Amino acid sequence: MDATAQTQEVIRQNWLRVQEQVAEACEASGRNRSEVTIVGVSKYVPPEFAYQLTQAGCDQLGENRPQSLWDKYQFCEERHTAVEWHMIGHLQRNKIRRTLPMLRCIHSLDSLRLAQALSEAAVAQGSVLTAFLEVNVSEDQSKTGLPRSQLVELLEHADSLPGLQLSGLMAMSTHGASATQTRREFAAVRELRDTLNATAPSTISLTELSMGMSGDFADAIAEGATLVRIGSSLWEGIDYHHA
Ligand SMILES: *Cc1c(COP(=O)(O)O)cnc(C)c1O
Question: CA–CA distance from 193 to each of 135, 150, 196 (Å)?
Answer without folding.
Answer: 10, 14, 5
